[in-house]
Amino acid sequence: MTTAHGFSRRAFLGATGATGLLAACGNGVGSNGAAQIDARVVSTEQYLYSSFPGTRDLASRAAGVLIMPLITEAGLIYGGGYGRGALRVNGVTVDYYSATRATFGLQIGAQQYAHALFFMTESALGQFRRSPGWAAGADVRYATPAQGASIGKETTEIEPVIALVFGQQGFIAGATLTGVKYNRIIP
Fold this sequence. Notes:
Pfam families: Ysc84. InterPro entries: TAT_signal, TAT_signal_bac_arc, Ysc84_actin-binding. The chain has about 190 residues and is an alpha+beta fold. Helix content is about 30%, strand content about 40%. The protein is globular and about 40 Å long.
């Protein structure tokens, strides 16, 4: 049966099921605020730098680094993702951000991962901080965890933003940061 808006009950149930699955995952929603986000960010940052040594050098050259310790995504045709993290400048948290994503299409599954955005220019960092809702787009260069040992030395040209996704658990076919929207939050 199709509703007046063209959605079937099955599609509606699939979307609400994905939302329920997403809500059941421990991604920091309803947490103790800034202290818990900071603890997760510091732990993730330490893991990142010890597991992928080149990222420490990359961070030292970056104007700022957004660390997202845990993004949870789930989907069954309709899907979504959510997580919270912190923007660090010179090793100090300056702002907190949420990352959200809504998707529709060929997808099934759930996954959790961490990621970091290295803002390599003051201009890119300023644009991110001034934006009421910044979305990962074509100006983001993706690095793989396999490049983690050498990425800091490989990146000689100035890229505005370098993204590294790591610590992935679970699986959703075709998952990327494309379409993830970042918004400043007050935890």
